[in-house]
Amino acid sequence: MFNVRSDEPKYAFLWDKETKETNRYGKPIDLAKEGDELHGVSLNINGDCSIGDNPNRYKQHGFYFNADNCIGCHACEAACSEKNDNPAHIAFRSVGFVEGGSYPAYQRLNISMACNHCDDPVCLKGCPTRAYTKYVEYGAVLQDPDICFGCGYCTWVCPYNAPQLDPVKGQVSKCNMCVDRLEVGLKPACVSACLGNALDFGVIENVPENREQSKTEIPGFPRTDITNPNIRFQQTRQNKRDMTRTDSMPLKYHKDEKVGLYKSALDPKKGQKKEWNWAKLLLSHESSHVAFTLVTQAAVGGFLLLVLGNLFGINAFKTISSSTNLTPLLVVFSVIMSFGLYKLNMHLGKPHRFYRGFYNLRHSPVSREIAGVSLFFASLLGFTFFHSMDFNFLANVCAVLGVMSGPIGLYYMYKLYRIKARPYWDHWQTATSLIGTCLSFSALIIALFLLVVAEPSVTVFKTLATVVLAGLVIDTVGHLFHARYLQTGEGEAQASWYEQTTTFAWPFYISQGLLVVAIIAAFLNILDPSVFTWVVLLLAYLGSAVIKRSLFFALVIPTTMPGAFFWKNQGFQEHAKETGLAKMPQVGVEYEAHRVFNVSELIKTIKETSLKDAQTQLKSIFIWKNT
Asked: Which of 355, 420, 67 is nearest to 234 (CA)?
């Protein structure tokens, strides 16, 4: 348990006496009645099996933030990081701000935010490893970093920047509500450290003394209907009609006078300059997802075309399936899918723990996607082997499994991107893009393989070109509707369109031009197929597909908390790298570079100085690396 100091100040202790029965979302505040199997169970904090004597132990607790009092001193951040021994690049609680007006009528509104321990935690449902648990004790949503394998999906679905992915350790961690302090009647460390008495904590819906408001929204705070967060606000000062973010996100918050609430809106901070930014687009952290999604969709689509095309008597696919080229063609699909699975697995923070991705089949679309895709891959390999050995019965069993598991894997691949906190993805165009890739990319691979190893009939090539064209048309229709949705949408959707036509304008335009070329080449191949038009189709399609799929990940703007001028600000991170600030470990930007730098310095120290100095250098590495 946490040790209470003899001189602990009065404001550090929990104050709740009477509580309400339900919260404003209609859910019970009392999470476990006496006699329930979960009642009277120890949290086993630090190996202590005793149970805290907090009378409200089984009631939903939450934070209370008085924006009128917050002075932006970041003491809450420091106290949280000190208690949890966080490195410089990780912060469970952070203070961002929005501002409005101009001098002398300038206004700044600070927002201190950590995990809100929501009634409906999307991180818990989304996590494939079941690293999250919502406890009846205090309603705390706790996460076990040791179970996490570092996929980062929880950081996608959470609207509040709560889960923090540490690329050095390869795992996620987050605010734990300081349950060890709660067990002994103390408020969380961040609350106790607040200088302006802006943060408070207690049973949810209880308004602290000398407070007059208990709102669920203030400017800059994301929508609450996604997770029903357990945080309440007071902000009595009159805000400006437009409150802008100081980070690089092209967003501001505009007051809707009809409902009296602030909604996110486009804020074109960078003007309308069109840029290239190829490196930022193609060499991003999500390039592994680009490779995995493209080749997996191609492999599933190719398998379905060959198996179902033969089953339904389509002459072109019957010809391919009855030829000796079927087995090597299936080997090609197996190889490219192996590459995609390898890229995806190595993208994890802990690749050797990949098997944990099957742990949450009950809730997580990621687990279901992994299960479906893995079963399909096994079916593909099995069908390829048994067909080559003329074990027709076993080959047919694998074919049935592949036809069933492939679409299931793709369906949940689509579902995992329908995230409410990411409007750019939350559109049916995600499905048309997936279906279009399945048809176009798979048929293109089959055609090019036959061009190299065989001389099939014109009918086969025309059929394959028709499939490619159908996929391109489906993709284009979805793209047109998606573009209209972004242009006429609100806030983050419009901001994604703005980024698409400024930061990544030229790659976007090039991808559209290549898509038009691909459609024309596919149409020409239907009329009169030739090697030249197929090569043009290949180059145009691959270029367009890779750029568009990279844009799919680069353009998404989450409905998340505003950052500060420095911290949690993508613009500052880029500035730090350009100016050399990133070389300072305390800035928390290029953490892996600091680790390599320190190791090289250690080797140099060992060579040139004493063992004692080398030990000092080694100690500094361990403090930084925290291993």
From this structure: 67
CB-based contacts of 135, cutoff 8 Å, min separation 6: 43, 141, 142, 179
Residues 140, 117 contacting (CB under 8 angstroms) = yes
Please list the ranges in the chain whose pLDDT falls under 70: 1, 592-627
Nearest Cα neighbor of 400 from 383, 417, 384 is 383
Angle between helices 287-311 and 531-554 (to 10 degrees): 130
> Which tokens go with 472?
């391109």
Q: What contacts 7, CB < 8 A, 6 or more positions away? A: none
Task: Give the pLDDT of residue 546.
Answer: 97
Peptide bond into 167 cis (omega under 30): no
Contact 107, 101 (CB under 8 A): yes
Contact between 291 and 347 (Cβ < 8 Å)? no
CA distance 107 to 601: 46
Find out whether 381 and 333 touch, Cβ atoms under 8 Å: no
Helices vs. strands in the chain: H and E counts, helices first: 19, 12
Residue 575 CB contacts under 8 Å (≥ 6 apart), including other chains? 581
Q: What are the residues facing 13 on neighbouring strands?
A: 186
Helix (H) or strand (E) holding 62: strand 61-66
Task: Please identify, in words, the CATH class of the domain defined by 278-554.
Answer: mainly alpha
What integer best gives the mean pLDDT of the chain?
Answer: 91
What pLDDT does 627 receive? Answer: 37
**Integer Cα distance of 259 and 540 in angstroms:** 48
- Measure the CA–CA gap between 121 and 119, rounded to whole angstroms: 6
Q: What's the whole-model pTM score? A: 0.91
Contact yes or no for 131/124 (Cβ under 8 A): no
Q: Which two tokens stand for residue 432?
A: 């048309």
Give per-residue pLDDT as tens, 603-620.
Answer: 655 566 556 555 555 554
Where are the domains positioned within the chain? Answer: 278-554, 594-627
